[in-house]
């Protein structure tokens, strides 16, 4: 019998968690898990309730049984997930649904995923038992604006809309399920708009802003968890990031507290320098000081906004309002920038990096560099071979700068790092083409290109083709074949040349 790769364990401090049941190698797939529930996001325009893809008034067809709009694919009306709202509409509401507005977020979709959870109570007790073991944080949510919205627009609305018996479906139970969806839901970007899915073991993976695992999805929406560049020993806890690794400490803390109801104390959040990157650094306002104000989070705080901005050089404590103003000013210009125009992106970097108000590694600059690195050579009408030598060199420099930060802060982020490796592969292949009169330079550039390509393929190989990174992974395979043929011809040419 093959030993399971992971196990679910429990700890008095962290609660239930996922641990390696055997030694896991670097980049090893540790878990592939089918969702317990999947459904549309709470705020969404109408989507097909089978495949969850966007539909329009012209493309939609009504489910014959319940009237909910579906896509033309006849299989969607029989989709297992659609059965919940379909049955409740037929047996409880006893009146077909009619949706007319397909362009704006529609209130009728707010409760669909919650209905699909509640439906399991009488129709799939095994799934219901797993769902109700998940954390809902109802006590923390109670009194908040989101809790009140759920109470009015989901709990009360559901019971009226579907004529639910309040003794069978008490408001507290519905609100608990709302909390389970909010706390444990994963956004799955396989459709436009993305949908939400809840997993069993996947809900118990710990959070870290520097996780040791990456999260992706298969084409059919299964959760795929994979270790990062470092191996995980048997018994080691597995972690993913619940937030955006490209955000600064203050942003991550606020987001986690608002959506997951805890204050993060991971190594990255606990280190003002963010592992030596100064990713959130704002220039110290003290005259002639060369330091940066950095976010210090008190180890014992339970307040996500209890962040003291302290200079790493002179130890001056900055006014948090001034920090916020400085960031808001740069943020507004970044939001107004045309991200599809390389010149605008470069003007933004030239201006604000030279101004020195933020650390050169700041998350604003990292985000723009990542965007610009991918723009060069990918815009319509501007292929890679049309770039000037300066632009090609700049593309390489941007990729390497972002990779240096990525290696320190988010080594498990396969999509970002894989895309950067692919861009570097393309740069080196173009370098080889331009060095065609120097055989040694061509060979060196092609070998470096192959190395980057192999790393990109390894990082992206589990990405589904529905995502840009999955399409990039397919391109990696073709490029690898072409590159091997080119290297073989070059070797033969060198071998046949007189010494």
TrEMBL record:
<dbReference type="InterPro" id="IPR053010">
    <property type="entry name" value="SET_SmydA-8"/>
</dbReference>
<dbReference type="InterPro" id="IPR046341">
    <property type="entry name" value="SET_dom_sf"/>
</dbReference>
<protein>
    <recommendedName>
        <fullName>Protein msta</fullName>
    </recommendedName>
</protein>
